[in-house]
UniProtKB/TrEMBL annotation:
It comes from the Bacteria. The record marks 27, 262 as: Important for catalytic activity. Its cofactor is Mg(2+); Mn(2+); Ca(2+); Co(2+). The active site is at residue 410. GO terms for cellular component: cytosol. Thiamine diphosphate binds at residues 67, 115-117, 157, 186, 262, 436. The chain crosses the membrane at residues 411-436. This is Transketolase. Mg(2+) binds at residues 156, 186, 188.
Amino acid sequence: MINVENTSVNAIRILAAEMIQKAKSGHPGLPMGCAPIAYELWGRHMSHNPKNPKWLNRDRFILSGGHGSAMLYSLLHLFGYGLTMDDLKNFRQLDSLTPGHPEYGHTVGVEATTGPLGAGMGMAVGMAIAEAHLAEKFNKPGYPVYDHYTFALGGDGCMMEGISSEAFSLAGTLGLSKLIVIYDSNNISIEGDTDAAFTEDVQKRMEAFGFQTIDVADGTDLAAIGRAIEEAKADKERPSFITVHTQIGYGCPAKQGKASAHGEPLGEENLQAAKDNLGWTSEPFTVPEEVYADYAAKAAKGQEAEDKWNAMFSEWKAKFPAAAALHDKFYDQDAIKAVMEDESFWAPAEKPTASRALSGNIINKLKDIVPSLMGGSADLAPSNKTEMKDEDFFSKENRNGRNMHFGVRELAMGAIGNGMALHGGVTAYVATFFVFSDYIKPMMRLAALMKLPVTYVLTHDSIGVGEDGPTHEPIEQLAMLRAMPNMQVFRPADAVETAAGWYTALADTESPTALVLTRQNLDVIPSSKEGALKGGYVIADAAKDVPDGIIIATGSEVGISLAAKEILAQEGKDVRVVSMPCMELFEQQSDEYKEQVLPKAVRARVAVEAGSDFGWGKYIGLDGAAVCMKGFGASAPAAALFKKFGFTKENVAETMRSLLK
């Protein structure tokens, strides 16, 4: 008679190793070393229901060490989340449900796309923030609508990456007691023993951050792992960090504890040796019925937990109808549509105003329309204009706050924003200076990959930063973000276009949006709500049916371009000016519309943007010209820099004039 518990743990190990061996690609070390952690956590301590993977009050599990995906897929198969044995056999193959690293929205049961080490740790912090905020908003005595934990599992690599320190520093400050981090400590990295580059006392670091720290000496001791998890849950003041000492590749005699177990298949002989060593006698990709029964019994507890919660939730809705109505609004993705016919939302500015200030005004209109709106800045809210007035700041003492103090932690802020959006019930925005989008970019990329509607408020958008100099003047960042699939980059030219940017950000539920905003004041221009929502439009047309030339501009350069048109008109040159606040939206329009705005017959085209000219070629063609930046800028007042680098009406006019010759 088999020992079901041991065999169930070994099922995770062997399935993972078999998947990797069949694919001839993958990372068996983590799954084999962490199998006992996964079995104990998922089977006895996590509240989750495979029959309803989107249950609102489920515990979240993030595999930050995403290279160990074979372990997660084994769990999802064994617990009955819908992954079949054929899915496991197709690990890392084209169009399979079992890609090399876990992908949110692609595989049922995967809570976050992980791959870049440490990113999952940051996203877990965001999930814990969302849970705490929603619990404060909606829980009533005897009615814990939101009462779940966020678990993150990662290894030495996750702890070496700076993002984890950024995120955990904030998590400790905020006292996120529902966050439990499990550290797979095996002292092995790809290059060998971690002592080569990583000798700090991680426990002491986490203690300094404000975590409860717990140590499990034997990573195969299920009871000890279980006691540690329960001890973590018992601390209601601090997040918890559990170090579990494991052996990478556990069970494979030739690989156990060695770097070679990390990132390559075991090999057929070593796989068989591991099976012999672990007492595994089943055929390849076969699991004993007793094991399936063990997992099914544990999964059934999740259904019972949800049934109990559903009954409580129904009572809560009946007893607290006002809270229930507000709860519905938190999940209403169409709430933003209420502003479409609201004239005040689309009102033009009465005087020249910076788009960062215009955005701040809009945020304070949106906060009452979209009650789930929550976010903040990397210590720059007064400059980014991102604070919601008359709203508290989220803190250890006040979970009700909608404003966030992220501190000077741009990379972690990006991950936390992703985690808030992944959790659901929160409409997240984050903010910093545009040049520091370099620090956020990896998390923006994950947001785009996961189709998360996170909004990035990126101010001080150009050489208009002025005196701060080239370290703070973004040049190539617009091109960088525009090159990213599924990222909407919106650089508005006035109040109406800024409103269109925010509307687009909140109306599109499957794309993140970067709002790129000025420090300096913008001219009051004849913009169009309808045109801005199409990403590009004719803001000032030529008198002729076919214009002599077309000037295409964004942001603060639209006003300059309109002035250049007037100069050219006095010379008898009839040009059109196109405002292009969002190339991505423009590209979504019909071919007919794009031809109307940018007729192919007009080859004299000038792009005007205080950034790199990279990417403008598709609009100006081989015959066009670009008034753009060629270097990194300089330190001087903004007006002096715009003149020095050619962003003047005279230079734009001369550039078009040279084309028309």
